[in-house]
Automatic annotation (TrEMBL):
<dbReference type="InterPro" id="IPR001128">
    <property type="entry name" value="Cyt_P450"/>
</dbReference>
<dbReference type="GO" id="GO:0016705">
    <property type="term" value="F:oxidoreductase activity, acting on paired donors, with incorporation or reduction of molecular oxygen"/>
</dbReference>
<dbReference type="GO" id="GO:0016020">
    <property type="term" value="C:membrane"/>
</dbReference>
<protein>
    <submittedName>
        <fullName>Cytochrome P450</fullName>
    </submittedName>
</protein>
<dbReference type="GO" id="GO:0020037">
    <property type="term" value="F:heme binding"/>
</dbReference>
<feature type="binding site" description="axial binding residue">
    <location>
        <position position="491"/>
    </location>
    <ligand>
        <name>heme</name>
    </ligand>
</feature>
<keyword id="KW-0479">Metal-binding</keyword>
<dbReference type="InterPro" id="IPR050121">
    <property type="entry name" value="Cytochrome_P450_monoxygenase"/>
</dbReference>
<comment type="similarity">
    <text>Belongs to the cytochrome P450 family.</text>
</comment>
<dbReference type="InterPro" id="IPR036396">
    <property type="entry name" value="Cyt_P450_sf"/>
</dbReference>
<comment type="pathway">
    <text>Secondary metabolite biosynthesis; terpenoid biosynthesis.</text>
</comment>
<keyword id="KW-0812">Transmembrane</keyword>
<keyword id="KW-0472">Membrane</keyword>
<keyword id="KW-0408">Iron</keyword>
<dbReference type="InterPro" id="IPR002403">
    <property type="entry name" value="Cyt_P450_E_grp-IV"/>
</dbReference>
<keyword id="KW-0560">Oxidoreductase</keyword>
<dbReference type="Pfam" id="PF00067">
    <property type="entry name" value="p450"/>
</dbReference>
Length: 552
């Protein structure tokens, strides 16, 4: 008999998907979900969920419409806007294969999720396991006391004291962006540049230099660098998207012994994307190992400087010291997450500068009154620049939503009752263990009950002396927004992101004018959000070099 060919990735996806569909269908006959009474958009069929996953794996299929395709897809922001506009601040939505979940931006409910009852709402097992598989144990892949210990160490790296010391390094990188990547291309005449490509490189260099004391990119040429780590970092997100259908298996894989054994077993699966992902993770780990060894040698000469890697190498006040292997895996995680968030935010501010020329000129005028290179206090003391950054991060958060899983049956309180499909008013919502809950970051930041009737307008002037008039207090860690979430899983580097943005704008606005953004630029939800033109990652902006006289 002829031997059977190995299953293709699409066939693997089909078997997994149909098995899950059968289980969900049978379960639905016997278990009633109390969330069924909450209004929300119509559900995709189970078949639509299967087709969506197969398409993500590369099959040539027509995209299904509805929750599944849109919430995380290229057109995700259209669904987010619909949920904000057409429903109450707690909305029933449908995950893959009809799984009932909640999309939440009610202020009291969010306070319960991220602060008051945060032990009842944990990162999903899929996210924790996948983070552990890619980066090892760290702040993204741990919970409870272990997570607290990781966070306690890393928070020190982004203290105000350390941020003050980072300012000269950030300026050095911003000057290299200006003089190496941008000015040579536009010094003779205005030109359309792909700012996404330039700012992505700059973001990696920011965290490399300021965060771990290493330079990845000289930023001296418009040609892409050939550093293998840089290439691996670019491919990581793409490969994860290709393998999205297999991410539900991550918790099972995480139980199969050591990381090396897990990757060995995964290597037996005949999938090109999986093999490529293993190579990417291996490259990043090897490069991070080299960086850690360099830091160990550097600490012997200069023990005073404190960046992220050095803090991980030092013993904390509880007598704990991470092993060198632990530090290697944590370093890769820090580089990847910080680079993606910063890149998204930098792209957004440049796009907004081009969209709002009056705002751009007002910022330039404010900067003209200040020294060309400012210190920390001068940077944070510029009121309109600060308002521009706050409004950008409010209206356009880099990560529009985050997910949680309910760890035990509980009650979700609401700020005001909502009307169920049966006509009755509900002042709270019972949640079953295992329910998926989305923290709707964008929707919370656009909520008129919090920000007023002009909540969806871009108005930097709403931030007077760093504060805006609000109707309701939110539980986020930053400026009454949910941009960097709140509680013990809030973003530890949010002050670093703000500082990077201010340094870059203080340099670029003195030298360039940004204009004529293409109408074809679209922003995908992603994690984080990113710009594209016809599905290609691009941010085409016309850049004009300003003479010293023009910039003053």
């Amino acid at each position: 008999m002829p031997s059977r060919m190995p299953l293709s990735s699409v066939e693997h996806a089909l078997i997994l998907s149909l098995s899950y569909v059968l289980w969900r269908t049978l379960r639905g006959f016997f278990v009633r979900n109390p969330l069924d009474n909450i209004p929300g958009p119509p559900s995709d069929s189970f078949l639509a969920g299967v087709l969506f996953l197969l398409e993500r794996m590369g099959a040539s299929l027509t995209s299904p419409t509805g929750n599944v395709a849109q919430l995380h897809g290229p057109d995700g922001f259209e669904l987010h806007q619909s949920l904000e506009r057409d429903y109450d601040p707690v909305v029933r939505i449908h995950g893959l294969f009809g799984a009932t979940q909640l999309y939440v931006y009610d202020p009291v409910a969010l306070h319960s999720i991220v602060m008051k009852d945060q032990d009842l709402y944990e990162e999903s097992p899929v996210f924790l396991s996948l983070s552990g598989l890619l980066f090892g144990k760290g702040i993204l892949s741990t919970t409870g006391e272990e997570h607290r210990r990781h966070r306690k160490v890393l928070v020190q790296a982004f203290s105000t004291r350390n941020l003050r010391g980072m300012v000269p390094v950030l300026y050095e990188v911003a000057h290299r962006l200006r003089d190496g990547l941008m000015r040579p291309q536009v010094k003779d005449s205005a030109k359309e540049l792909d700012m996404n490509a330039l700012l992505s490189r700059t973001s990696l260099e920011f965290i490399g230099r300021a965060g771990i004391g290493h330079s990845f990119d000289t930023l001296a040429s418009s040609e892409e660098p050939v550093d293998p780590y840089t290439e691996s970092l670019k491919n990581l997100t793409l490969l994860i998207r290709e393998l999205a259908v297999f991410t539900p298996l991550a918790p099972l894989i995480s139980k199969l012994g050591s990381a090396s054994l897990q990757w060995f077993l995964l290597g037996l699966v005949p999938l090109r994307s999986l093999s490529a992902l293993r190579d990417v993770v291996s490259t990043m780990e090897a490069r991070a190992k080299t960086l850690v060894c360099q830091q160990i040698r550097a600490m012997e000469k200069d023990s005073g400087k404190m960046d992220v890697t050095r803090l991980l190498l030092k013993m904390d006040d509880e007598g704990t010291r991470w092993t060198d292997a632990d530090v290697v895996t944590r370093t890769s995680m820090i580089i990847q997450t910080a680079t993606d968030t910063t890149s998204s935010s930098l792209n957004r501010v440049v796009h907004l500068l081009a969209l709002y020329p009056d705002i751009q000129e007002r910022l330039r005028a404010e900067l003209a009154c200040m020294p060309e290179q400012m210190d920390f206090d001068q940077l944070v003391g510029l009121p309109y620049l600060d308002g521009f950054i706050r409004e950008t991060l409010r209206l356009y958060p880099p990560i529009p939503l985050m997910s949680r899983i309910v760890t035990q049956d509980c009650i979700l309180p609401l700020s005001r009752p909502i009307q169920g499909l049966d006509g009755k008013m509900m002042g709270c919502i019972p949640l079953q263990k295992g329910t998926g809950v989305y923290i709707a970051i964008s929707a919370a930041n656009h909520n008129p009950a919090v920000w007023g009737a002009d909540a969806r307008e871009f108005k930097p002037e709403r931030w007077e002396n760093g504060r805006a008039e609000v109707g309701v207090r939110m539980s986020g860690v930053y400026s009454n927004t949910m941009t960097f979430v709140g509680g013990r899983r809030s973003c530890i580097g949010f002050k670093f992101v703000q500082l990077e943005l201010k340094v870059v704008l203080s340099v670029l606005l003195r030298s360039f004018r940004f204009s004529a953004p293409s109408d074809e630029i679209r922003w995908s939800v992603g994690a984080p959000a990113s710009p594209s033109v016809r599905t290609r990652p691009l941010l085409p902006i016309v850049v004009e070099w300003l003479s010293p006289r023009q910039s003053s």
